[in-house]
Amino acid sequence: MADAEEWIEWDVARARDWIAVPRSDDDKYSRGVLGVITGSHDYPGAAVLGVEAAMRTGVGMVRYTGPRAVAGAVLARRPEVVTISGRVQAWLLGSGMNPARRTLVLSGELSQAIGEGHPIVLDAGALDLVGETHGAAVITPHYRELAALLGGRKGPTVEEVAENPGEWAIRAAEALGATVLLKGAVTHIAQPDGIRLTVSSSPGWLATAGTGDVLGGVLGALLATHHEVLKYDPSKLAPLSATAALLHGLAARRASGGGPIAALDVAQAIPATIAALLARSEG
Ligand SMILES: NC(=O)C1=CN([C@@H]2O[C@H](COP(=O)(O)OP(=O)(O)OC[C@H]3O[C@@H](n4cnc5c(N)ncnc54)[C@H](O)[C@@H]3O)[C@@H](O)[C@H]2O)[C@@H](O)CC1
Ligand SMILES: Nc1ncnc2c1ncn2[C@@H]1O[C@H](COP(=O)(O)OP(=O)(O)O)[C@@H](O)[C@H]1O
């Protein structure tokens, strides 16, 4: 079992260094374009939540090329989003998708996105594609999803993952060769190179539908805005993932003020959370 002392708790002081503040010579392309293929007929809201969160985290552009039927809902919420194919510098794939219902066309589009070799977040219905990635890839399962991903006779049960999430995050990172962000009351980030980070400060109010989709958007935006460094140093995925989880928890706390929240509230609280974090205040 992992030694608890090997885990580093991520904090505001560390996270500040992983927010890309636009410079005077930046434009939308230099800041980074996030490509997004998420959502489905069954879960269109997951795409809306992830895109909203990415825009609120700060990114040059979001290019949404998921199912046409979902694009309307995304555009209704965020007309800034571009829905034609084109150049991207990072991808967010899978939130609100069901791999059992993946069409041939969608399979091709997902494979093509992965094949580009850009930094990539694989969430929910794209977790099974982790073996196809090359380059910087982070998966964002919760306990049930990680148990399913490590399935087969040697895989853990959901209860085993829940009892020892850090250990299973490490094992998954080693077995899958990817950065693992394992969601839960404590979020564990493990990387094959041995980096192990936790985020323990999120309020329990975050345990509500759609907040995982919001986290995917936050992380996607951080990858897009750090695409240059990730090209030559994929190990930076771990601090970026921990920063995403910390921001997510801080935004939830800010939106909550001690009371209940909905997922969209968390996304909407992100800009003020980032501003406070950059100003070195409480975040
Ligand atoms: N507004 C939206 O569009 C939302 C979409 N979501 C998407 O929904 C998909 C499934 O995510 P989940 O986290 O639910 O996947 P899980 O693997 O946790 O659950 C899969 C299914 O198992 C059943 N189930 C599991 N645990 C259960 C329990 N304790 N009680 C009752 N039923 C249970 C539910 O039918 C659930 O849909 C993902 O693609 C995710 O991105 C969710 O994020 C919720 C919000
Ligand atoms: N008890 C809890 N305390 C704090 N955060 C939690 C708790 N339970 C879940 N979370 C966080 O809420 C989010 C839920 O994500 P996920 O399980 O993917 O939900 P969904 O699929 O509905 O979006 C994750 O970021 C997770 O870390």
From TrEMBL:
(6S)-NADPHX binds at residues 46, 96, 142, 213. SUPFAM superfamilies: Ribokinase-like. The keyword NADP applies. InterPro entries: CARKD, Ribokinase-like. AMP binds at residues 183-187, 212. Its EC number is 4.2.1.136. Keywords: ATP-binding, Lyase, NAD, NADP, Nucleotide-binding. Its cofactor is Mg(2+). It comes from the Bacteria. Homotetramer. PANTHER family: ATP-DEPENDENT (S)-NAD(P)H-HYDRATE DEHYDRATASE (PTHR12592:SF0), ATP-DEPENDENT (S)-NAD(P)H-HYDRATE DEHYDRATASE FAMILY MEMBER (PTHR12592). Catalyzes the dehydration of the S-form of NAD(P)HX at the expense of ADP, which is converted to AMP. Together with NAD(P)HX epimerase, which catalyzes the epimerization of the S- and R-forms, the enzyme allows the repair of both epimers of NAD(P)HX, a damaged form of NAD(P)H that is a result of enzymatic or heat-dependent hydration. This is ADP-dependent (S)-NAD(P)H-hydrate dehydratase. It comes from Luethyella okanaganae. The lineage of its organism: Bacteria, Bacillati, Actinomycetota, Actinomycetes, Micrococcales. The gene is nnrD.
